[in-house]
Amino acid sequence: MFEGTRKKVFWMTDAIQHSAVRKQYEDILNIQKQEGNSLNIYLRKILEYAICNVPFYEQISTPELHKFPVMSKITYKEQGQRCRSREYLENKKLYIASTSGSTGTPLIVYQDANKKARMRADLIAAHEAVGWNLGDHYIFIRNWVSNYKQSTLKNIAQNVVNISVTEFGEEKKEWLCLHLQKKTGSIIFGYASSVCDFLNYIRKKKINARELKVKLIICDSDELTSVNRKLLEEAFGCIVINRYDNEENGLLAISSPYKDTLMVNYPSIYVELLKLDSDEHVEPGEMGRVVVTDLFNRAMPLIRYDIGDLAISPDPAGKIRTFSSLNGRRADCIYSTDGKIISAVAISSITEIFDTIMRYQLIQISKTCFEFHYIGEISERNMLELSNRLHTALGSKAEIRYIEEYNIPLEKSGKAKTIVNAVKKEKNRNGESYSI
């Protein structure tokens, strides 16, 4: 009822604040129309700014990206204020983005007002493209820890109902069904695992998901497989979008309707994919480390920042605009018996054909020992097929123990981790832990 009013109020408030978000929003749309012809200018500007204002980069002679080192979270933490702009050190109005550290090293990143406005504009433009307009009512399912909690007044202003994954049991799922019946045309936004868990509940209760009249589903933070996307679309009768972002940079990529490919947020982020064992660019179609350069944060420029994720793109180096797949965090990957890296996506492509497996977690105990924990039922025939598929991926010498569970706990972050590396680890050259 008040959706249109909320949208008008947002832009009126922005106008009072010198149209900070509006200017960024229009710039994003303009870049998209021009197919990114101005991006080299933005990249050069942030590199020039860093050389002149950030102590860590002052020895770099020319603003060429390859002359800047690839940075890890540990490097930023060790260097401290040397990675921050002198211009903003005394600024009391900076925004703080902190990573949880639930799947890696925690990090605090300082953002200036211009970057914050850009992040908001990125989301508005990307959401509008898939049908989510400012003011639309949405359900936000995530781990609502203390630093993410919002006031009741802010929730009302944003037209959002927050649900914590730690409380998303059958009672809360029943409540959500009733709420969606009352608030038709709502959007569901949350962890892919939680949204799929909601679908499993609906199926178990024999509820017609289409009668809930959900407008749009957007999943982020953990893996949304192609099979699960199609199952959600068929069940709810709406578009299902995959969103990829982080606290430090904001929106990184987002999928288009009915597609698995994600479009990189190239108006605001420059992306490189680097080899797993060196800082060379990968070939198109090769899995690599996601390394981003933030084009708009001057308070603490994140240049060639290795965010710890793995992805594949069909695009050549220097022109990465799409991800054909997101392959999870490198720290979470497991390894075959002959040392090949195995991502969560590789395992999901094996398990997703078995629709009686409600949830699973593959744990690597040692170089050759694995445990496959699962909720659901697996027939003798399917167990043989699953075992054959897993051995093809993990190696013929892999010893796999199958354990049926009634519950597989979520991570502290509230996400459902499908693969876990429990092998003894050692430090790499960046100080990060990887399996041996």
Total helix count? 11
CATH topology of the domain at 333-435: GMP Synthetase, Chain A, domain 3
Describe the biggest sheet?
A: 8 strands, mixed
* Strand count: 22
Q: What fraction of residues sit in β-strands?
A: 15-25%
Q: Numbering strands along the chain, what is their spatial order in the largest sheet?
A: 4-3-5-6-7-8-9-13
- What CATH first level of the domain at 333-435 would be assigned? Alpha Beta
InterPro entries: ANL_N_sf (IPR042099), CapK_Type1_Caps_Biosynth (IPR053158)
Organism: Faecalicatena fissicatena
Keywords: Ligase
GO molecular function, one term: ligase activity
Fold and architecture overview:
- Helix content is 31%, strand content 25%.
- By secondary structure, the protein is α/β, with parallel strands linked by helices.
- It has a domain of 103 residues: ANL, C-terminal domain (GMP Synthetase, Chain A, domain 3, 2-Layer Sandwich).
- Strands 4-3-5-6-7-8-9-13 form an eight-stranded mixed beta sheet. Strands 10-11-12-14 form a four-stranded antiparallel beta sheet.
- Helix 8 links the parallel strand 5 and strand 6.
- Keywords: Ligase.
- This is Phenylacetate--CoA ligase family protein.
- It comes from Faecalicatena fissicatena.
